[in-house]
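Bug report (template v2)

What were you trying to do?
Predict the complex of my protein with NAP.

What happened?
Run completed; filing so the output is reviewed.

Input:
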Amino acid sequence: MWKYIAGTIVVSSVAYSLIKYFRGGVCHCTARLDGLVVVITGANSGIGRALALELAQRGATLVLACRDVEKGLNAKKYIISHLRNKNIKIFVKHLDLCDISSIIKFSDTLNKEFREIYALVNNAGVFYHPQGLTKDGFEITLQTNYLGHYILTHHLLKLLRKAVHARIVNVSSEAHRNVNIYDLKAVTKCQEEFRSHFVAYGVSKLALVLFTKQLAKKLSNTNIIVNAANPGNVETNIYRNFPLLSNPWLYALQWPIRCLVVKTPKQGAQTLLHCLLTSNRSTGQYYSDCKLDLPSPIASNDQIAKDYYELTTEILSDRFSTESEC
Ligand SMILES: NC(=O)c1ccc[n+]([C@@H]2O[C@H](COP(=O)([O-])OP(=O)(O)OC[C@H]3O[C@@H](n4cnc5c(N)ncnc54)[C@H](OP(=O)(O)O)[C@@H]3O)[C@@H](O)[C@H]2O)c1
């Protein structure tokens, strides 16, 4: 009998410690964002929607940038019904990061409709997406996660500059550590396939950390701070193409472990929220679990960040110019 009780206590304590450890940091900032405009890409599900809910609670005016407006409107309904507050200002706008003309149209609309923007959260993303090219001729994962956000950010800089303080948060991932410099340079050959789906994702997330570093430098004398956030391992739709999790049987087998070690979207949104609310105005940094973290050696290299920014500008040069914005 005593053995059974002791066993139960040990198992429960281990499970509790694991859950506590893996749920990660919690944002304790109490700042409010009343009336400040925050644009979130991919805000209709997962971490983006959870972040939108947290920000709506803090009074922000939200622009949910979604490739499927219907899903965006459902997210808006979810937030309003959750907070039981019809006065929250939420705008749902169409944005497809795989289509440069859609990014430009979206930015033009915002430039016409808003006087300033407090924050841009580059959150939308795909993982393990079947490889292929967008209509603009770039690899799908690379354009969705990185190139599209690169263009969007430059098109919204004018609005961000008009705010007293402004922030850009690029949602990256620990997967940025899993690729090498040769994989990274594959962007120059981005009309070809990457070595694997993992590499495509890793490169896109490394590119976001490098972009963060270089953009922060370019904007160092302005009102805008730029940081990268790693949400951790979060239970969301992002795994829809990943065979180990999209197969219901394999998923069921892993479920007991996943319950212990995988974050909820609300927990995953905490580091992003921290980057938006913290009074620490350091810029060009990588955050994990609501704390500053060191990114990979490649991502920490100033020269690589500069070269990669220039390379990206060059491959996008016939689509837009960063000159006027930066
Ligand atoms: N979940 C994790 O474990 C994890 C770990 C590290 C980093 N992250 C990062 O966290 C971010 C949010 O992902 P999530 O986990 O919350 O996954 P999610 O629920 O699948 O959310 C991704 C969002 O991106 C949108 N999106 C995809 N392609 C797009 C496009 N071409 N144009 C505009 N929007 C597009 C999706 O729209 P649809 O609903 O229409 O597909 C969805 O709203 C991603 O950048 C991801 O890489 C996630």
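What did the reviewer find?
Residues 41-42, 44-48, 67-68, 71, 95-98, 123-127, 144, 171, 173, 231, 233-234, 236-238 surround NAP (CB under 6 Å). The first helix runs from residue 2 to 22.
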